[in-house]
Predict the structure.
Amino acid sequence: MSHTDHLDKLEATSIHILREAYREFGSLVMLWSIGKDSTVLLWLARKAFFGHVPIPLVHIDTHYKIPEMIEYRDKLALKWKLNMVYGQNTEALKNKQTYPDGAINRIDCCKALKSEALKHTLSGEWTRFRMDHDKQEYVVDTNAEPYTGVIVGVRADEEGSRSKERYFSPRDKQNDWDVDDQPPELWGQYKTDFAPGTHLRIHPLLDWTELNIWEYIQREDIPITGLYFDRGEGKRYRSLGCQPCTTPVDSTATTTQDIIDELKSGKFANVAERSGRAQDKEDGGGLETLRRDGYM
Amino acid sequence: MSDHSPKDQMSIVIVGHVDHGKSTVIGRLMADTGSLPDGKLEQVRAMCKSNARPFEYAFLMDALKNEQAQGITIDTARCFFNTKKRHYIIIDAPGHIEFLKNMITGASRAEAAFLVIDANEGIKENSKRHGYMVSMLGIKQVSILVNKMDLVDYSQERFDSIVQDYTAFLGRLGVEPTSFIPISAFEGENITEASIEMPWYTGHHVLAQVDDFNKSAEPTERPFRMPVQDIYKFTAEGDDRRIVAGSIDTGTVHIGDGVRFLPSGKTSKIKSIECFNADPMTQAHAGQSNGFTLDTEIYIQRGELMVRDDEPPPQVSTRFKANLFWMGHAPMLMNTSYKLKLGAARAPVKLVDIVHVLDASELSTATHKKQIDRHDVAECILEVPKPIAFDLVSEIESTGRLVIVDNFEIAGAGIILESVSDDASTLKDYISEREAAWHKSEISAAERGASYRHGSKFILIIGSETNYKTELGTALEKKLFYRNFKSYYLGMAHMMNAMRSEQQLNREDIIRRLGELARILTDSGQIFISSIAGIDEYDIKILRQLNEPNDILVVNVSDFAYESDEIGLRLTADTPVNEAVDAICDVLKKQQVMEYYL
């Protein structure tokens, strides 16, 4: 007889993947976008490692994130004693080479502030900032070793190209993703061996749906940022990104249960989650152009 | 808003020969059940129009740009849809032979399979190959969709002949098909409602079959098996728990149960079941990723299999017979070292014999093959250097499955058919060959002993405190040397670095080379001292065998007691170094290595 329900099963698989990654990679990080998915991932890490998070968390701060996201990030980092690191494309911001500055289009802005910043933060070429828990502020990180394993909270149901991902997905030296030649995964065995110079992306949430995420947030009572809820203006964010390129949706959902109802049979039952994300639309058939270049 | 949404979920894979219409079946299923996001259908229709191509349901699935260019499914796309009964993940597995590893990836996650056969083209090579793969992957429920019935004028005769041929084929694999359904995905016949064109067919339509597949229960009634994925001791904030972590494959375990770790054979009792943000548990069962603390501090390693003492044990052997499917670009060669992953265990593995190679599409066998080529299925004998714990796939599936890594890639997948007696192990063969081929010195060990005034010995210090081991090793070397003994200390870190620069070496290689060095240095009459961490009883046994006929003295300075008579001396890491040196010298005296002295 089975006592395991669907969320239990998803949780168990994700924990297995997190532990496998922790076992196999000496230089491992987890990307924390501050959004609901990667916050669930962070929670799962606490489950996998029994209250500890023995993996550094990396946030790419585009500078245009909604300010409340950053406050929330640092509050949890201190509370949960996280090894918190952030990186940034300081050059592009300094020289005003961004979309909000009117210098480039949305796609190129994403490439510069996210993909490029991520690539160079992971490789250690650009300055990393690490939370100093004694000082309770960020200091320049002295560790510039490249990270070879990167845990990311992408889900297969988000859009087309993500549905082709593996749990353990290799990237070559240029961060490129060879969609046509991916390793097999079966029976809980993943690609954990890799040639020097390559690295892996690890996707423990691949089989979760948006609804699963919210059901799990409710079950576990995971503290997520208030931006996902309507706070009296009849609007809330369904997906979080940079302020200039993310629009809130019309919704009066004030609780996790309201959001679950909305997704199950209400107004969002058949509307894509990233419909408020402008860069997707400019990329033609999906995020593929961006993802091939290292976008998450 | 009341909640009638289903809680259960099932994964179903769609397989079949290229162009037989798998993606069309899924696209149609999604569209006809209203499972597509608003606007998706229109988006794809518009895209087809702007590219001057006729609309096809398959395009919905082939979400990637280069896929649409080639018109075939390259990878496994997953999509989700619901019926009143369940949530479904539909896995679209590619039919083209080049992408078999993608098909395997998709199919291995499924609880049931649809296998699509084109009524017009009939049974093709991959119709058979995929049928074989589905059975090997352990999927018990297979429904065959005979598609494109519109192209054969909905002919019952044509349908019946495919049913007959394919049933015979599956019979040879021991697979009993769940159903055969005649459909036209393109025209929407027998997809979500009974076909008007085929009144002669009275069975389920596809959607009804989807809901009729049985949910496989978690195997909680089987003997308990948990591959030890890791052992955690996070010391932050005064946490002193030592947690054995892993995902439970089968069975149930309770606090207080006696457990055994294999292959080491160590035993203990479950003291607690650890969890974060959950109610305390007194039992854990299959399907969970858990952590346990034990009653006693025993030295176990990740990769061991945790089982219950009161249940049937797994097999423990260095050799086994497996059915192996090869996906690697390069063939699998005999007597070449590959990496085995079985549960949480990792080990070097060699192909030592090929019983026969099966042509998966024809199910004919070729014997006398000397290698396993890409897309071959081979019944073969595999050997690992030290015993490994596993089950036969006929008894417990999850612990009877393995993959083989070649050149960083998972290149093979196999199921274990039987354990093979390991009397004729490669190590023993190797040692006797080595000894026979060795042009030995004409000076005997006795002559050397008389001249040096002592016998030879391999002294191995084991434990995790690197600095202490090094200090002890060098202090011992010096004490012996200044009393005119031929002594030599080799730090393992140095040796490992030196070897790593040449090639990727695994632990077993390092143990092997240390044993070879010991054999030569003790043969030269020296007292050879080395130290190593993370070693188990079986490694020590291999070192002893490699060093024979000369003697080994193992000095344990670790926190763990080894349940083994291989240990010559137990010290703790807080014993002052000079006392430890004296204790070792005492043993050497007793063993008469130093009979002429002190």
Chain A touches chain B through 62 residues (CB under 8 Å). The CA atoms of residues 91 and 221 of chain A lie 39 Å apart.
